[in-house]
Each structure stands twice: as structure tokens, then as C-alpha cells.
Write a structure and sequence with these properties.
14 strands; 377 residues; 16% strand; single chain; alpha+beta; 9 helices
């Protein structure tokens, strides 16, 4: 089998999927040799390419689709995501056209957690993004969008583990003229125009998309035009600086299912801009868990910022007393700090603290209205 190519399912999908679902498999360990099928994308699109303003963390806007998951890894993702535990505890319905699965890792999805926190996967995504990235927090590992089919919400529990084969395209004008029964109206979008809550995302397709019509990500350019990024094929991914780039997920109107996963990431370096927000996700989350993880990661990041700033000050002090008093502390004769710079730095951290608390405000009726505000914090 060629690198990055996933074999498509056999005819008895329902039978085999039922067996997979009924068996309680032992927890698989992530193995980069078995579970990665990475092939670099043909092109990486920069913000300049799209006439967009620069970003303080990376000039990468998006990538072309590229193979990432092996067949075994894809099936393990689907097995965990479509398990009764995940569907019972992690499914949210906030739009008529789709449902979301959130907050399943690591408790209900240990393999998924291993996959998206592994050094191998993070290096791939970081190299493509042009900045060293880590998951924002466990709650945002593998947010899953399921486009609902004709059976609506009730059909989610019947989705097979082995992805059903894509319907083949019409072969002739005569075939197209044959009546096919009443058409099913496709949604106008899976996710409306928005910027993501977090700096970078890696979006992976878990469905057979060989003959998919639609399903692209459309990006708003800086010159008023839009650009469509081709939807990934099964097991393939796209990396997008989604907090900086306004985009929309277009529906696929000829697929029996469309399941995509979204891993949200932020810079590892605590001194880089962290403008994360909960604006898109507060109404589709178990808030008691997400707010704990949100507050914990923000406090740890702040602690690291203060530690690094204190170390800079200590180093400046040591250099000053070495120069003026043979390295003896206690009577430094030079100013080693700038009060105005310190005040600006402190104000920046206080804005970050205020934003942390603001994001946990009470839910309101307009929480599904996706906003694009970005604050330098």
C-alpha cells in the first residue's frame, strides 16, 4: 500500500462495524510507525499570499491537505469517538445541521489523547505551522463535527466504526436524468463564518471523501475575495491559523456521512501571544471541567511568564553588580529596570488575567453568535 493511502472499506461494512463496536478492545498504545502515514503537503499558504496582515506568532495561514493518519489510527479514532461512553457524555447539539463531540480525552478516548500529545504528531504540526505548538488543553483535543444525515440526531448512534464507502459519481447524462427520489436539502454550512477560539487547528477527515462535492474550507482574503482550501480525503489533514484567519466550513451534499476532528493548539513558548478565547465553545462544553482546565493552563502560563521575567531581572542585576562592585550583592549602583516598561508588561499580564475571567462569564442566548474579537494578550 502506498504511503498515506487508506484502503477503502469492504462491502460488509455494517457487519464488521457491529463486531468492532461490540468488542471491548484493550487500550492501544500509540505507535508512530503504525499510526502515522504522514506525507508533507504540496503547498503551504502564507498570510501574505492571502493579502492578510501578519500574525505575531507565525506567517503560515494554511496548508494544502496532507495524509496523516494510517488506516489503523483512523479506525481507532472512530472506535473511541463513536463509543457509547463518548456519545452519552460528550455529545452536544447546537445547530440543526450537525452535532459536536467534545471533552472526551483522555478519560473516554485514551488513544486519541496519546496520538495528539505525542512528540511525533506535535512536531509534524509545528513544522507545518512554523511555530512550536502544544494542545491548548485536554478538553480541546479532537473536537469532532458530525454533519447530520437524513436520519438526523437519531442516526448518530448508528454510524458504523468502519467508514461507509462514498457514493460513486454519476457516469452518464442518462443516469443523471433518472429519478432518485425526493432530494435531501443540504445545509448552507457546517460551521458559519468565524475565527477559531484558539491560535492553530489541525483538521482531519474521518469519512470516505473520494467523491465529495463541497466540504471545502473557504477563507476570507484580505483583498475582499475568498479562497477555497480543498477538503482533505479520509485520514488526511489541514493545518490552519484559525484564530487569525476568518473561514467557513462548507457542507458536503453527496456524502452518507461527514466526520471531521479538530485538534486545537497554541504556542509552547509562554512569551508568545496567547489570544485564546472560549467564545465559540462555551455553549457546547461541560463547563465544570472545561473551566478548570482553562483556568489551570492560564495560571501555569502566567506563572511561567513571571518566572522568566524575574530571571531576566536577576540576570541584569548580576551583570550590574559584577560591573560596579565585583559581584557583591546588596548595594547595586545602577538601575536595572525601566519602570515604564515594567508597568506596560504588568498591564499586559493584567489584561490576560481579566480576559481569563471574562471568558467564564454566564452563558447568554447569543453565545452561539460567533464573534471575531482578538485582543493582544
Amino acid at each position: 500500500m502506498a504511503p498515506g493511502i487508506i484502503e477503502y472499506p469492504p462491502a460488509d461494512v455494517a457487519t464488521q462495524s457491529s463486531k468492532l463496536r461490540s468488542i471491548n478492545p484493550s487500550i492501544k498504545k500509540f505507535d508512530p510507525v503504525k499510526h502515522l502515514a504522514y506525507v508533507p503537503p504540496k503547498k503551504i499558504h502564507t498570510l501574505e499570499d492571502l493579502c492578510l496582515p501578519p500574525s505575531p506568532i507565525s506567517q503560515v495561514a494554511s496548508t494544502d491537505p496532507f495524509p496523516l493518519l494510517s488506516e489503523e489510527a483512523l479506525l481507532e479514532h472512530r472506535r473511541e469517538l463513536l463509543s457509547d461512553e463518548v456519545l452519552n457524555n460528550c455529545m452536544y447539539s447546537t445547530r440543526a445541521e450537525s452535532v459536536q463531540l467534545r471533552g472526551m480525552a483522555p478519560r473516554y478516548a485514551p488513544f486519541i489523547h496519546q496520538f495528539w500529545t505525542s512528540p511525533e504528531v506535535l512536531k509534524i504540526v509545528s513544522d507545518l505551522a512554523g511555530v512550536d505548538l502544544v494542545p491548548v488543553m485536554d478538553f480541546e483535543i479532537c473536537h469532532t463535527n458530525l454533519q447530520l444525515g437524513p436520519d438526523g440526531l437519531g442516526g448518530v448512534r448508528n454510524i458504523p466504526i468502519i467508514p461507509p464507502g462514498a457514493p460513486e459519481p454519476e457516469k452518464s447524462s442518462e443516469d443523471q436524468a433518472k429519478p432518485k427520489g425526493p432530494p435531501v436539502a443540504a445545509p448552507s454550512f457546517v460551521v458559519p463564518w468565524h475565527r477559531d477560539s484558539y491560535p492553530f487547528v489541525c483538521v482531519v477527515m474521518l469519512s470516505d471523501a473520494r467523491y465529495m462535492k463541497g466540504g471545502e474550507t473557504e477563507i476570507q482574503r484580505g483583498d475582499g475575495k475568498t479562497t477555497k482550501v480543498r477538503g482533505p480525503q479520509m485520514g488526511s489533514a489541514v493545518v490552519l491559523q484559525g484564530r487569525h484567519v476568518s473561514h467557513i466550513a462548507l457542507p458536503a451534499d453527496n456524502m452518507s456521512e461527514r466526520i471531521t476532528i479538530v485538534a486545537s493548539l497554541r504556542p509552547r513558548d509562554p512569551m508568545l501571544l496567547d489570544d485564546a478565547s472560549l467564545m465559540n465553545v462555551r455553549n457546547k462544553s461541560r463547563l465544570s471541567e472545561m473551566y478548570y482546565q482553562w483556568t489551570s493552563y492560564r495560571l501555569h502560563l502566567l506563572a511561567e511568564r513571571f518566572r522568566l521575567e524575574a530571571e531576566k531581572l536577576d540576570a541584569a542585576y548580576r551583570a550590574a553588580i559584577e560591573k560596579t562592585d565585583e559581584g557583591r550583592p546588596g548595594d547595586c549602583k545602577e538601575n536595572v529596570f525601566d519602570v515604564e516598561n515594567l508597568e506596560r508588561w504588568m498591564e499586559k499580564q493584567m489584561r490576560y488575567m481579566r480576559r481569563t475571567v471574562f471568558e467564564m462569564r454566564p452563558l447568554t442566548a447569543d453565545d452561539d453568535i460567533i464573534k471575531n474579537e482578538i485582543e493582544e494578550v
